Predict the structure.
Amino acid sequence: MSNDQNAPRLSFEFFPPKTPEGKTKLLKVREDLSELNPEFFSVTYGAGGSTRDNTKGIVTELRDQGIDVAPHLSFGGDTEDTIKELISEYQAAGVKRIVALRGDMPSGMGGSFQMVYANQLVAFIREHFGDHFELEVAAYPEIHPEAPSYDDDIRYLKGKFDAGANSAITQYFYSPDAFFYFMDQCQNAGITQPIYPGIMPILNYKNLVRFSDNCGADIPRWLRQRLESFGDDTASLQAFGLDLVTELCEVLLDNGAPGLHFYTMNQTEPTATIVRNLGLSGS
Ligand code: FAD
């Protein structure tokens, strides 16, 4: 969508809305965020495939509007045939990009969840769909919580590229040093494909802590203390968060990050403000 070949790549992530009101709101958010010229939007896939129909619904609706949209995908509890059929539907709808994941085990799903590592999903898509799709995979500058070791996690990331992934998007983080160290280690491991930092705006302290504890993203102690000090003053917390995340993005881009992937939480703000603060908006 962006015309400037040298501009950092922007992408914006949504989760599939559960209600008609949520969907109406999301379609408006999409319209507003399109003014910032993202390369693509992406739509998450509920743990274990629990949002398969919702994700497909919103992805095909956005495709009908001519929008570049990348569904997130994991095997979850599905068979190869079901996954192949879903990908064929995406192909027929004009989808050109997929975010290929192992996914997380949904609570209560038990034995029907298949531990299909993301490199296997990448290989599966390449085997059955050739080079039709650009494939994004997940990367973890602070290391995936289940990884046996730092080096193993990088080795498994390399395995995803070797299986045919084009680029990676990272888990969010607030320590640029963690990202730059990770990039150095990726380079040492022979990874040459672009890795786009995932950016999580700060909206609510308690939700951020809960979410970060679950996914293994670190909130540095000083930052926890600072955020906690705002108490119920959400407006001040969000203003602080905007400055902090804008500065993080600036440092990342100034030091070679090829673009930014925003976890928008289905909201126009604060993503739009941060992108405008950075002077990246095309409007
Ligand atoms: P993998 O790359 O398969 O890695 C999973 C773990 O297994 C890691 O610890 C890795 O070190 C290890 N591993 C990898 N390969 C092997 C192997 N061959 N043998 C042994 N161990 C191995 N989750 C969702 O449910 N839905 C989403 O839409 C979603 N979107 C995301 C988007 C982004 C950008 C990111 C960063 C994460 C997203 N997640 C999503 C979360 C992700 O699914 C979880 O972090 C999940 O636990 C790991 O997925 P992965 O694709 O990174 O897995």
